[in-house]
Amino acid sequence: MGHLLDDAQIAAFDRDGVLAIEGFVGPDALAELRQRADDIVDAWEPTAAATVFTTEDQQRRSNDEFLSSGGRIWCFLEEGAVDAEGHLTRDKSLAVNKIGHAQHDLDDVFERFSYTDDLTGVASDIGLSDAVALQSMYIFKQPGIGGEVSCHQDATFLYTDPLSVTGFWFAVEDATLDNGCLWTAPGRHRDPLRRQFRRRGDNDDGTEFVDLDPTPLPAAPDDLVPLEVPAGTLVVLDGRLPHWSDVNRSPRSRHAYTLHCISAAADYPDWNWLQRGDDMPLRRLDRSDR
Ligand code: FE2
């Protein structure tokens, strides 16, 4: 028996590389987080060349805003919300793909939501007892245009040696087949890591994928299983577990918040795309460093 999880849950995570915990977050905390996300977008002024976020195209589109967002709070736009001249085709509240990537350290509401005893307990139960919080994203999955996230392993984008990245994915709204829920390949977290997403040389040189292993990723959606969950669910994802989500073609949004943690003891190479300044060290999930 762990701190937060029972033996069956711990065994299921070990077997599948994914675990959904319904009712992990209460409605008040979800509402507060959602309101703060709306406020951040409200206060944000899109620039002429605001950053469109797509996983398909991140190599080509990597730019200063993306590469410096590891230590900031930034809004990234949906591809389907920008015309050929780069102008928004809808209100910004319905155009933002996500907010990232350091609101867990820079915003008090996100900080309170992220650094909790309950989440520390879950992390510890699955073997991440020295978790530090690396990256946060508030994902909107906007109605009608919320973009596909191609099948990937999180350790491609947040690499440590040894591998340690773990995703904590909170459903702020119900996630269903219609609005683009997560799909995963249970058990395939034992597969090798396929590739790394690296900064090239200096920061001005953009990024590239480096292939590590030729094993194909599971095909979406045929080789994947949908994970429909109600609001308030925490989904824990092993960093090597392939996962995917479809375009949201429904008239309903699918808000989610993710926090990615790594082991404080693991090496975090400086070629990872996400870097933070020396003035902003990563902090322990259990707050033992405060
Ligand atoms: Fe992911």
Can you tell me about this structure?
The protein has one domain (7-277): q2cbj1_9rhob like domain (Jelly Rolls). 20% of the residues lie in helices and 23% in strands. It contains 8 helices and 14 strands. The longest helix has 17 residues, at 27-43. It is globular, with a radius of gyration of 18 Å. It binds fe (ii) ion (FE2).
- What compounds are bound to the protein? fe (ii) ion
Per the CATH scheme, the topology name is Jelly Rolls
Tally of separate helices: 8
User: What general form does the structure show?
Assistant: globular
Q: What portion of residues is helical?
A: 10-25%
Terminal CA distance? 28 Å
Any descriptors?
290 residues; Jelly Rolls; 8 helices; 14 strands; alpha+beta; binds fe (ii) ion; eight-stranded antiparallel sheet
List the helices and strands and how they pair.
Elements lengths: L6 H10 L1 E4 L5 H17 L14 H4 L2 H4 L5 E5 L18 E6 L1 H4 L1 H7 L2 H9 L5 E9 L9 E4 L1 H4 L8 E6 L10 E3 L10 E5 L7 E5 L13 E3 L6 E5 L4 E3 L10 E8 L19 E2 L6
Antiparallel strand pairs: 1-11, 2-3, 3-4, 4-13, 4-14, 5-12, 6-11, 6-13, 7-10, 7-12, 8-9
The site of fe (ii) ion (FE2) has 4 residues, from loops.
Tell me briefly what this model is.
The chain is an alpha+beta fold and 290 residues long. It has eight helices and 14 strands.
